Structure formats: C-alpha cells, structure tokens
Task: structure prediction
Amino acid sequence: MDYKIIRANPATAQIEVEFLLLSGYVVSIDLPIDESGAVPVGQELDTYIKGFLPYYLVERNAKLSAGISNINDLMQHVATPPPSVDGNLSGLV
Result:
C-alpha cells in the first residue's frame, strides 16, 4: 500500500498520512515516543503507519470498481424527489 506523509508536527509528534490507493483518505497519527524521546523511523515507521490502513476500504473500493450488480434493484427503493415548483403556489394553501 502506497502512502505519503503530507504533514508533520514536530512539537506534537503527529503526522498526517494520505493512503494513495484510497485517493484523498487522510489519517492523523500520533507517533509513539520511546524512552529516549525518539519516534519510529524507517521500517518501524512504515509498519506503524500501515497499521492504520483500513483494509476494509481497500476491499470495498476493489468491489466498487467492478460495479454493483444489483444497483437497479436498490434504486427502485429510493424515493423520488417531489416535483419542482413552477412559481404557482395557489394550490398549496
């Protein structure tokens, strides 16, 4: 899963990460601080960030890209919007 760190706040040890496959899905992450006052970097940071990835969204997006086979059946249950008002309000008293 590709991601990019789009912001970092060194005063709070927080980062914002965008998961690229989920275009626009951004997560704010408080990084853990160890006994020596350091935050994870390298592979440890990569593993930590990937722990925030909502895999159910990745699976859902894959299914959505294939299309919803019964979308027409679902749409039959959606209420139709009321007709638009043409400026004649005499019948609405």
Notes: Residues 3-69 form one domain. DSSP finds three helices and three strands in the chain. Residues 55-66 form the longest helix (12 residues). The CA atoms of residues 82 and 88 lie 15 Å apart.
